[in-house]
Amino acid sequence: RSPTSAAPPALRPLAPLALIARGRSARRRATEDIGREDRGAMPAKPGSRYWAPHAELAFVPALCTAVDAQKVKFTDSEGNDFQVSSEAADALDLVFDAQLEGVDNVCTLEVVNQAAVMHTVRTRYLRSPPQVYTRVSRIVIAVNPFQHLPIYTGSVMKQYLQSPDSLELDPHVFGIGSDAVNGLRSPGQKNQAVLISGESGAGKTESTKHVLLYLASVLKSEHGLEDKLLQVSPVLESFGNAKTVRNDNSSRFGKWIQISINPSTMRLRGASVTDYLLEVPRVCNQGPDERNYHVFYQVFSKEAIEDFPMLGLKAADPRNFRYLKKRNVHVSGMDDEEHYRNLRAALAALKFEEEEEEHVFRIVAGVLHLGNLDFVALGEGSGVEDKAVVNTAAEVLKVDARELAKCVCFKRRKTAREVMECPLTPAAAELTRDSIAKMVYGRLFRWLVRRGNAALGADLGAVAPGKAERMIGVLDIAGFEFFKTNLLEQLFINLSNEKLQQFFNNAVFKSELAEYAAEGIPITRIDYQDNQQILDLIEGKGGILQTLDDATTGIVLTDHKYTAKIIKDHAKHPCFVTPKFVAKDPLLFGVRHYAGEVTYTTTAFVEKNEAQEPPEVLD
């Protein structure tokens, strides 16, 4: 997680991480060590060191100096004295010297617990230069340093390219790429998957790019396909990333990158990207201290205006556009001019035609102009207030201005005998305007993904007889989010992270326990959080999402009635949190996620779930 992020959610026990130790003897020792933690509370003893609770660092090593019936006194390494209740002190873990060394693989520790893992990661990060990677066997923990480090050079990569096993080298994201390639080369040639997860701002996007850089360097092709693979990222970042309160380059969508490989030659045959959960509401509205998607600012760069004078943005101020009328039009350290040049270079590398590029930027600018439409009341309906604005939007989008005005001011309703065009009030016309903008941008993003996939579809020839195509997949999804205001988008993102956490539980903990049983290794009770209850609450029968679907497709409920229903239905669920003041905040509910408690605001839940594309626009 980012060392500069907000206060962490509730911490979870990490003792099962010791289960990832490789080798029978190592695993046996790990289980014995974990069992030591479960042998009952032991009274704290003066002169012994313990992992004591700390408000900022979670745990610190501290020396027990005095004990009485009510409290235990400690002194930390900086000479600070504090005390803990006797009951709490009796549950504290002892400190072992090896836990303080900052080892590169926590599975080498004799005793593994949450405090030891956190202290190891922190100790390594605080070194100069920062050691941002720590290994948990084949898992790599990365701490975002928010600075450029000279550890991604060609010479560093060469070490991992030449090593038969990444465990022989320092922990590194390149080691993850190496493990994937070596796994594909091993007997059986099993397909590989790289899962990159973490909270918002943890550095997942950059980690993904480093993994792809490594894979592209190993899996050469005869058609330069590896270069195209690397150029997909700048395109998707421009159109799918934005500044949030926690991250200046936050991915507002998830992606699964599937790399196809010829098993006989170990050469790249093709690749594809599958996108998930693009946050389309951001097109029309962003929270305080946030920005719209990067591309909306890149089109105002000097070069963009010179390249595409037909966009109607010459001498325009981004702050004069409704969809950009927020703070942080410019972000410190982010050069929109340079990123525009990178975007154009990436589009060229993916073989976009000039006409295709013009159409892409027309849509981006057209969405901005569309957002500036204002409406006035005309009888029972409405009309566009400024004809010049709708004319500009129509000209940029290359559509008829009268038809465009008609689409936003009228709604088409079908009856058994006819189709009627019903006038919309100014408020309803504004909602339609925003719906069109979100629909157009969402379709543009999906088209860009398809177009990029077409460029990545090169084939190095037929696979040898008897050998099936192999693949390496890289998953990069939006990280767990808990903002001041959490909407339906955050619920979807956090649900996807819950699913990933469940996969992790099954792949690491449950499978390891099954292996111990098969090997006859005795093991004491191992506690880890199984999040199936959380998944059932959100997506199970009668859960939060099914109730939302019912509120949309059945008897339509308002957000207030929907919230009241899920509070009534799930108030006693152990993972559901009922607001303390329901009458004061009738649109709030909470979920105890695996990473902590999140309070959601149900504003526009029903409307967003309905999200039908205006049929009059599609025609």
Automatic annotation (TrEMBL):
<keyword id="KW-0547">Nucleotide-binding</keyword>
<feature type="region of interest" description="Disordered">
    <location>
        <begin position="22"/>
        <end position="45"/>
    </location>
</feature>
<dbReference type="GO" id="GO:0016459">
    <property type="term" value="C:myosin complex"/>
</dbReference>
<protein>
    <recommendedName>
        <fullName>Myosin motor domain-containing protein</fullName>
    </recommendedName>
</protein>
<keyword id="KW-0009">Actin-binding</keyword>
<dbReference type="GO" id="GO:0000146">
    <property type="term" value="F:microfilament motor activity"/>
</dbReference>
<dbReference type="InterPro" id="IPR027417">
    <property type="entry name" value="P-loop_NTPase"/>
</dbReference>
<comment type="similarity">
    <text>Belongs to the TRAFAC class myosin-kinesin ATPase superfamily. Myosin family.</text>
</comment>
<dbReference type="GO" id="GO:0005737">
    <property type="term" value="C:cytoplasm"/>
</dbReference>
<dbReference type="GO" id="GO:0005524">
    <property type="term" value="F:ATP binding"/>
</dbReference>
<feature type="compositionally biased region" description="Basic and acidic residues">
    <location>
        <begin position="29"/>
        <end position="40"/>
    </location>
</feature>
<feature type="domain" description="Myosin motor">
    <location>
        <begin position="101"/>
        <end position="619"/>
    </location>
</feature>
<dbReference type="GO" id="GO:0007015">
    <property type="term" value="P:actin filament organization"/>
</dbReference>
<dbReference type="Pfam" id="PF00063">
    <property type="entry name" value="Myosin_head"/>
</dbReference>
<dbReference type="GO" id="GO:0016020">
    <property type="term" value="C:membrane"/>
</dbReference>
<keyword id="KW-0518">Myosin</keyword>
<keyword id="KW-0067">ATP-binding</keyword>
<dbReference type="InterPro" id="IPR001609">
    <property type="entry name" value="Myosin_head_motor_dom-like"/>
</dbReference>
<dbReference type="GO" id="GO:0051015">
    <property type="term" value="F:actin filament binding"/>
</dbReference>
<feature type="binding site">
    <location>
        <begin position="198"/>
        <end position="205"/>
    </location>
    <ligand>
        <name>ATP</name>
    </ligand>
</feature>
<keyword id="KW-0505">Motor protein</keyword>
<dbReference type="InterPro" id="IPR036961">
    <property type="entry name" value="Kinesin_motor_dom_sf"/>
</dbReference>
